[in-house]
Amino acid sequence: MKVLVPVKRVIDYNVKVRVKPDQTGVDLANVKMSMNPFDEISVEEAVRMKEAGTATEVVIVSIGPKQAQETIRTALAMGGDRGILINTDETVEPLAVAKILAKVVAEESPDLVLLGKQAIDDDSNQTGQMLAALLDWPQGTFAYKIEKDGDALTVTREVDGGLQTVKLATPAIVTVDLRLNEPRYASLPNIMKAKKKPIDEKAPGDYGVDISPRLSVVKVTEPPVREAGEKVEDVATLVSKLKSAGAI
Amino acid sequence: MHQIAPMSEDQAAIKAAVEKTLEPFGDDYWAKTDETGDWPEEFCDAMAAGGWLGIAFPEEYGGAGLGLTEAALMMQTVTRTGAGYSGASAIHLNIFGPKPLERFGNPEQKRENLPKIISGEEKMCFAVTEPNSGLDTSSLETKAERTNTGYTINGRKIWTTGAQRADKILIIARTTPKDQCAKPYLGLSLFYTDLDPNKIERQPIPKMGRKAVECNMLYIDGLEVPKDHLIGEEGEGFKYLLQGLNPERVLFAVESIGLGFSALERAATYAKERVVFGRPIGQNQGIQHPLAKSWAELSAAELLAYKAAGLYDAGQDCGAEANSAKYLGTEAGFRACETAVLTHGGMGYAKEYHVERMMREAMLARIAPVSREMILNFIAERVLGLPKSY
Fold first, then answer.
1. CB-based burial label for B88 (10 Å; 0-12, 13-18, 19+)
2. Chain B interface includes A77 (CB < 8 A)
3. What number of H helices and E strands is found in chain B?
4. Which residues of A touch B20 (CB under 8 A)?
5. CATH number for B42
6. Domain end position, chosen among B201, B234, B267
7. ipTM of this complex prediction, to 2 decimal places
8. Which of B9, B53, B74, B75 has the most A C-beta neighbours within 10 Å, making it the best mutation to test the interface with A?
9. Residues B269 and B215 reside in one and the same domain
10. Given B9, B12, B50, which is nearest A188 (Cβ)?
11. Is residue B362 part of a domain?
12. Which of A206, B68, B184, B352 has the maximal Cβ count within 10 Å?
């Protein structure tokens, strides 16, 4: 089974994000960037499949600026086999990402595309689903557990109120959730090995995909500052306060 | 592949991976090891498992074949995360300590020992300093006397780090009396051998900081060393040791710089959050300027340290730069930690904020492995051409 794993370079999850003064977006200057944490989980899962003998090849793909090559390299250091960088400095919306990935899938013919359920920068949670629609492939989203079952995959999904198990015929799209696994750290010997693994460089134009934005961001603002609460003596005071505030 | 500013892709990957590896070891972990004095085993295991101990050793022994620049980046990243010397000193010796073995050992010795050191299977300690000879290494009193099968070592060593858990000892001892040698630094020999606890009594020295990584007084009584545990030629040990001095100075510099940056970051965060007289204390220049000055001092020392590392990796002389970086880096590191404690006010004195631990640890690097005074002597004599003063 060949596995394609798309990864996205995003602001590191430890960084406190600052909104640009003109409210057009967040400030990316001199900010630490890393692999989207959900994509780390999908890379880990693909590498585990390879180690278990169920996957034959793990191909990493990223769409983004030149520096996204570092993100691919990290995935290769975790155990990916080779990479494809689709280089663009433009903002690429989920639909455009899905369209490019659909073309990559046509070229690479993977049996499984394993994506993070969403990227932590825009929290869109759309790419996997759109890709499944474009390819007309079955999808298993928010995966908690993935098992190979003959030519099919059994995916346990995290849904509201519990877990749902679905069976997918391959080729298929699976998006992974937080509890699927705990990603490994790249070891030094594997970082050194990753340097020798090939990364193909392409551009969105090579796939004939128009990436011009369809959406416009109205504004981006900081979350409202939480106001200080008030301590009350007893339940009776609490109830009367809530009543006078019109909350109950 | 010296680069650092801006970092090459590999260097960025190394830094990010070391940060990841250190993530499970937060402030509370290091505060606890400092309280109990327990060796940070979990941290050492994680670093060994990630292959980090072999960063500067050839690939044929399981290393990564990288240079001092990358080793320095790794060690700076370790202290920078807040692990300080409790983390750095626990692995420091693995990074360049076995270099004499790699450079002057015979193929058999290297094949036998280096892979085990790199994988963390074998733990070593390094016994040089003695109670009656500190920086004056040629006055060592520990003797290795020839026997039919090898040598018998007797003597005392002090400040031997990690000897409590070491399986092996890299030890320098006099094989020819000083008065029979052409030069005082001849007649010393280097051995890499088993640390036999029945022949070496190890007493930890209670000390100011870094309780987790102990330093010992060693009493060596009749340690039998087979002939093939001698490294290189008999009598040449001091020369072999010298090879490791400059890298060690660079590592001490960057470790202290990383520690200083870590303390500084905490101080800046505290100064932004701590409100007195209706405004954050960090709004006062009296608080801002010492922090800004520390940042500038750390950054300048960092630049020199990586220059020294770059020269070393290019096979060029880096004595002046390595020594100066050690001096500037450890002074700047200590000042940053001290400033951090002062910025925190009363809370800086409380263990809860971790900066007092950092300040105690930063003191170590000003003294070991070479004093500020001896560094200045070196620069005065070797760089400025002034007469020897001691």
1. buried
2. yes
3. 14, 10
4. 185-186
5. 1.10.540.10
6. B234
7. 0.84
8. B9
9. no
10. B50
11. yes
12. B68
Residues of A in contact with B52 (CB under 8 A): 187-188
Q: Are residues B274 and B374 in the same domain?
A: yes
Contact B134, B157 (CB under 8 A): no
Q: Per-residue pLDDT tens for A221-233? A: 998 888 888 888 9
What is the C-alpha to C-alpha distance for residues A177 and A120, in angstroms, rounded to an integer? 12
Identify whether B390 is part of a domain: no
Query: Which residues of A are less than 8 Å from B269 in CB distance?
Result: none
Cβ neighbours for B153, distance < 8 A, ≥ 6 positions apart? B142, B143, B144, B145, B171, B173, B191, B220, B222, B223, B225
**Is residue B2 pLDDT above 70, yes or no?**
no
- With beta carbons under 8 A apart, name residues in chain B contacting A73: 9, 13
B210: domain CATH number?
A: 2.40.110.10
**Is B17 in Cβ contact with A73 (below 8 Å)?**
no
Residues B260 and B215 in one domain: no
Contact A191 B20 (CB under 8 A): no
CB contact under 8 A, B14 and A188: yes
Structure tokens at A98: 């899905």
Residue B1 has pLDDT above 60, yes or no: no
Residue pair B166/B195 in contact by the 8 Å Cβ criterion: yes
Q: Judge if B278 and B374 occupy the same domain.
A: yes
pLDDT at A127 over 60: yes
Give me the residue spans of the domains in chain A. 2-244
Residues of A in contact with B16 (CB under 8 A): 34, 74
Question: What is the structure's pLDDT at A228?
Answer: 82
Please identify, among B119, B148, B163, the residue that sits at the C-terminal boundary of a domain.
B119
Q: Domain for residue B255, yes or no? A: yes
In chain B, residues 29-58 whose CB comes closer than 8 Å to chain A:
49-52, 54-55
Indicate the SS3 state at residue B359: helix
Chain A contact for B280 (CB, 8 A cutoff): no
Q: CA-nearest residue of chain A to B74?
A: A188
pLDDT digits (tens, 9 = 90+) for B110-152: 999 999 999 999 999 999 999 988 778 888 999 999 999 999 9
Residues A116 and B114: their CA atoms lie apart, in Å, by 41
For A191, the closest of B17, B49, B59 (CB atoms) is: B17
Taking CA–CA distances from A35, the nearest residue in chain B reads B16
Range of the domain at B32: 9-106+112-119
Instruction: State the count of interchain CB pairs (< 8 A) between A and B.
Output: 47
Same domain for B252 and B219: no
Q: What percent of chain B has pLDDT over 90?
A: 92
CATH of residue B273: 1.20.140.10
Question: Which two three-digit tokens encode residue B224?
Answer: 């039998």
Residues 90-149 of A with CB under 8 A from B: none
Q: How far apart are CA B38 and CA B43, in angstroms?
A: 12
Are A70 and B20 an interchain contact pair (Cβ–Cβ within 8 Å)?
no
Do B315 and B358 fall within a single domain?
Answer: yes
- Burial of residue A117 (number of CB atoms within 10 Å: 0-12, 13-18, 19+): buried
Q: What are the pLDDT digits (tens) for B194-214?
A: 999 999 999 999 999 999 999
Class of domain A2-244: alpha beta
Number of domains in chain B: 3
Shared-domain flag, residues B221 and B315: no
Report pLDDT for B225: 97
Same domain, B244 and B223: no
Q: Given CA atoms B279, B281, B283, B286 in this order, what sign does their dihedral have?
A: positive
Q: Could you tell me if residue B248 is inside a domain?
A: yes
